[in-house]
Amino acid sequence: MPRLILASGSPRRRTLLVGAGFDINAVIPPQIPEVRRDGEAPIDYVRRLAREKSAAVPGTNTWVIAADTIVHKADTIFEKPKDDPGAAIMLGTLAGDWHRVTTAWNLRWSGPSPAPNGRTVYKGHSTSRVKFRGLTPIEIARYVVTGEGRDKAGGYAVQGLGAGLIDRVVGSTTNVVGLPLDKVVPAMLAAGLTRSKT
């Protein structure tokens, strides 16, 4: 049975994959620069990062899955906030309006043996639309001080206390968390990865 390496330090992605029944044999966060190129569209940026993260992690006869998630509104990308004041500004900008969350993923076979079914790469991306409630400065400050959004794109977590900031989600919620399971699970099964029976 093929092995699986998760090329991500995100505990949320690990939880999603394990919850979907897949055994992760190793977690190896890739070390690559995450810098947007001049004129690079948000979708192109997140797809490139997923591809580069997957390629940066070695493996021997294993599947390597990597992903990257961005929060974006028009051409502006809201990365992980650098500090709490930055998080407050970010959430204030998103408050009361729609934004998009895109996760790109890349499942790559790392030889040297041939891939189980001959296909060496499965990849894709999903975009969900998220609308925040109108938020007061006090609400934003109370959320920021929890620290929940410090390591998350857009400065919030849909699966945590950040759910209280949200009015509506259109599309995959697991995509907003960090991995669109509706797309990733079929690809992993097609790649020959099987779910745990326990």
Description:
The protein is built from 6 helices and 7 strands. With 198 residues, the protein is α/β, with parallel strands linked by helices. It has one domain: Maf protein (Alpha-Beta Complex). Strands 1, 2, 3, 4, 5, 6 and 7 form a 7-stranded mixed beta sheet that branches. The mean pLDDT is 96.
List the helices and strands and how they pair.
Elements: E1 3-6, H1 11-19, E2 26-27, H2 42-55, E3 62-73, E4 76-78, H3 84-94, E5 98-110, E6 121-132, H4 137-144, E7 166-170, H5 173-177, H6 181-190
Helix pairs in contact: 3-4
What keyword list fits this structure?
alpha/beta, single chain, 26% strand, Maf protein, elongated, 198 residues, 6 helices
CATH-defined architecture: Alpha-Beta Complex
| CATH domain class | Alpha Beta
> What is the domain tally?
1
The residue fraction in helices comes out at: 25-40%
- Which range does the strand content fall in? 25-35%
Number of strands: 7
CATH topology: Maf protein
Distance between the termini: 16 Å
The rough form would be described as: elongated
Average predicted confidence as pLDDT: 96
Number of helices: 6
- Judged by helices, strands and strand pairing, the structural class is alpha/beta
The parts where pLDDT drops under 50 for at least 5 residues are none
Q: Quick one: biggest sheet?
A: 7 strands, mixed
**Radius of gyration, CA atoms, in whole angstroms:** 17 Å
Order of helices and strands: EHEHEEHEEHEHH
Summarize the structure in short.
The protein has helices at residues 11-19, 42-55, 84-94, 137-144, 173-177, 181-190; strands at 3-6, 26-27, 62-73, 76-78, 98-110, 121-132, 166-170. By secondary structure, the chain is an alpha/beta fold.
